[in-house]
User: Fold this.
Amino acid sequence: MEGKVRVRFAPSPTGPLHVGGARTALFNYLYAKHAGGVFVLRFEDTDTERNESVFEESITDGLKWLGLNWDEDHYQSKRADVYRRYLEKLTSQGLTYEQDGGVYFKLPAEPRVVVVDDIIRGKVEFNSKNFDDIVLMKKTGTPTFNFANVVDDIDMSITHVIRGEDHLSNTPKHILLYEAFAAPIPRFAHLPLLLNLDRSKMSKRTGDTAVDDYRRAGYLPEAMLNFLAQLGWSDPDGQDFLPLDELVKKFSLERVQKAGAVFDLQRLNHLNQHYLMRKSLDEYIELAKPFIAHLSGDELMGRFALALIQDRAQTLSEIPGLIEYFFKTPDYEANLLVFKKSSPEQTGKGLNATLTVLEALEDTDWNQVKLQQILDETLSAEGLQPGDMFWPVRVALSGEEGSPSPVELLEALGKTESISRIKTAINKLV
Ligand code: GLU
Assistant:
């Protein structure tokens, strides 16, 4: 019988959690949970010069935000005795030598072909004659990445190593170490590189940004998860929007592509807008709060405003820009009031007629249905075109060329504020 699946996400905490790392964590998580296995988080933190606990926190916070809960965690910095024990196994077989204070693993005297059998890439061959002897311990007494990584994968009974393609060239060396330990070799799956839109390799410099930057920019974890899942994997049924438990059900490494995965921010925006649109208004308001804390105004009006723009914002951080005019008097040029098929005279007529009927409207009738009705009546009574009235009223209320409809704005802003903005517009025209 096959043993239980055990996979690990093994970040070196030398920087915050980046999207590439998050994608690796996600694919490990999905593979483990799909198989009813164990997802291990292992901090490869032996490089004490470059590790920082803030980065460990960034990694754990990012994983929690995405809902990728791990079953075990380990820190290489606390496992020095394990590496010593394993080193002894190699030394006692005469497979190591010391030089300049470091400990090295001797490669086979006769060059040989090492085959990496990769679930995603198939068989990849390497010749050991192209490698240098493998450093196991540095002269500082700390194990190297290659050594600690293999020892831990053996010691933690890791069955599948799922990691970025950048590690493929290390894998044949790792296989030689597994063989030296007479340990079972895990299955390998090297995930495709992340590419920029122009298909250049993505790196921390060219845009591979920290997951936390996306959270702060107002992306939702569910959108991020779907986006990350599609960086190399695709749903067999072509679905874009899948909650985490559905991803678990549908994920397989067989559907991961070899070719580089293009990081398309437009896609992420699209996914995010989809999830934002589907929030209840109360949830949406809660999500928006931290992003609009600097806008002060009537709470009910804020609620109206958010309801009106809920399907327009792609990220939460766009919200203040979209609703700002509800909270402060808009600033615009007088000629924006005049629709291209209208004239200043007709526009003035439209605004004045609107002002008159709005002033006469009872507070209790101040709702979209009634407002639409009286504006329509006024339009035909005055013999005006929609562009002579609805256009300037919308601009008067929002200062924008594109915004919700005039009656939606009137309802949200309320009688006093609406009337004051229409008067301002009339004054601008003369
Ligand atoms: N610490 C390595 C890294 O962050 C892990 C490589 C692996 O998953 O084996 O790239």
